[in-house]
Amino acid sequence: MVDSERAVIDETTAGLLEAAGPQMYRRNAFRITGLPTYADRRTVRQRQQRITPALELGADVDLGHSLPVGLDDVRGAFDRILGDPRRRLVDELFWLWDAEGAVNGSGSGNGSGQGPTCQCPKSLHTDHDAAVRAHSAALDLTVDDLSAGWGDSEATQLWTDASRLWGQVLRRAVFWDHVRHRIAVLDDRQLDDSVIDTLRDALPATLVKPLIELASTAPNTADRLLLTKLAHGWPLVPSSLVEDQLEEAAAPHYESLRATAKRASSQLEGGDWDGAAAQVYEHALPALKQLEALVPHARHRRTSTARNDVAVLLNNCATAATDALGPGANLKASKWFRTAGELATDPVTQQTIRTNRDGLRNMMETFNQIRTQVDQLVAAGRISLARSLLLNVKRQLAGGAGTEEIDRMMDDLRNWPGSYRRSGSGSYGTPGTPGRSRKVFALVMAVVLLILLARALTGVFDNDDSGDSGARPGTGTFVLSAADAEENDPVGGCIERESDWEVGAREVDTVPCDDAHWGEVVAYQPLLGRDSTYLTRKYPGADQAVALSRFRCELVLARLGTEGAGLAVTHTVPGKEAWGMAVRSQLGAEYTTCVVHRADNGAMTEEDRVPLNAGVTEAPALMDTFSQFVRDNAPVGSCVKSKKDLSAESVDLPIVPCEESHWAEIVGYPVLYEVDDRPPWPGNEAVYARAEAACEDLTKGVSSTMRLHVVYPAQDWWSGLSTQIYAMCAVSYVGDNLWGGGL
């Protein structure tokens, strides 16, 4: 290629770049001046001499359109037409070719070389002008409406039409014959056939560029996704080119994210992990959301890296807070680890976050064990032993993380018996399965603490000759279902007869556990997990309240290490008034009391005594997922531990809390037909379609990496079962990998 050819191509490319953008038709020189695209130089100069002086004098000149243009715009348009044939040619391609289609309606083609001498078929001009009109109208409508929250079906149809019409025009050989004809008519040494090759390569990308710019500036996610989808569907433009242009358009978002990360890192280095995390949640996450709609991390390495960098930052905030505060950092650190795990894209980062989050969970379990032991010693009146245990652990901590929490427990002991605060069960909670990051969290403290705690507990209880893991109350009244769990007696009470157990009763009569008895109070369990978005403090209805209570107590029984002992468990169910009630207990008002008894309801003796410390094993609860009644199923917001064929298996599935490692989460049991309002059997396809729609409605906004499982009732539910017809909805990862935390 000689230098003169390269100059022609470069100038033509410059003209295309100048034209590309949301204003490409509004700034078209022929549209602004009202000239037909085939006007010769004499016609152009005559119109220039009529219009420009009038505009200079401030006269109101009819240009044939209502575009908001001024004198400088008009001057620039004339200069573009008269001053550079290559840029004029670009503007010709992006405006109307037929004389009757010109904005001002003037011009017959005389002296222009367009009409009589153009050998193009009339259909070419018609199709080209239809593409221009559709594209111009789509841009005008989108640019005007986008700031108000765009999603206009008319604009979407115009974009679809413009894409189709431009694709048809550019594929026609006669289109390029027309371009060759116009080069000949313009008869300028700056134009030759090399321009055609440049235009053939660059025109499709120029046409799609406005969509990409609009997508990058759209104010909401739905608009960005729609505009990006339209850009990917543009004809003759390779997907890789669209991706490159999208990433280029996303540069301001990347830069904003980089600046936020820099500010947050500086705060973290200064010891302000709360401020650093706030930067992430308030600024980085919204920026990532914008990027995901425009340049999703699955297709753009730069976005993937940006997500991973933010995950690293959040992980480091969580580890810094945990190192400094110990158990006091649990709520915030668990949240930060969970978010970091959702963001991380690098396998090494993912594993590191999992390790760090497991470390936090181990530490919290350790402190829960300490608190439980202290509570039981206090309940037995063994204050000195409780104090010895805490002093022993404090010495082992040597001022490290967790010392403040031990000091608080010791302060509580000093208040005994006046205002000592029992924790109930799960006083600190346990974070879910972790995510990922680059900075390795120092787990030494958590691991060492576990070892030292075991030694500390062994040392203390070796001096206790009671032989029991905790004292149990004797004959008397036992409070087991107060509105505030802090008012309950410690677990361990034994109920003499099943008839003494009244559903909803606040208290029962108890007998010494050495005597024959019907059941034992073994746990107070919170119903609301921290990880599932499907569990909130809003009353879930009677069926789910029952299911949640049953699940939590079945899980306690499974983890007591009494398998094969012929035991069953009964539970309380908090009423509607309890949901959302403000209480002091860390359990919340939404909790259940679990009472273990023999499955045959026979008498229990001292030999049948149930361990008071749940958590001996990590066994799941075995529950159904498609019983006759929804209340008998595993609850919404609980999780299936390992992969199952949910359509074929619905009995005794392994169910665990969602903060633990699991394969799928149960997200709902939508009712398809009420008992008195169900039609005759409508057929498998109709029932499945109704079930699928109901499940999709429950999972709106769930990541595209998740797979929806829909279980729907068979025909036999329509014959002989007088119950609601419902579906079961669950989600798992597409790759069937295990995960921790809710959706």
Shape: elongated
Largest sheet: 6 strands, antiparallel
Strands of the largest sheet, in order across it? 1-3-2-4-6-5
Distance between the termini: 58 Å
- Counting DSSP H or I runs of 4 or more residues, the number of helices is 21
Beta content comes to 5-15%
Architecture overview:
By secondary structure, this protein is an alpha+beta fold. The protein has helices spanning 3-19, 29-33, 41-56, 71-83, 85-93, 122-145, 153-170, 173-186, 194-217, 221-232, 239-249, 251-269, 273-294, 301-325, 330-343, 347-379, 383-397, 403-414, 444-461, 542-558, 684-698, and strands at residues 476-479, 494-495, 507-511, 519-526, 567-571, 591-598, 621-623, 638-640, 653-657, 664-668, 671-673, 706-711, 725-726, 728-733. The longest helix has 33 residues, at 347-379. The radius of gyration is 36 Å and the shape is elongated. Mean pLDDT is 81; it is low at 1-9, 100-116 and 423-470.
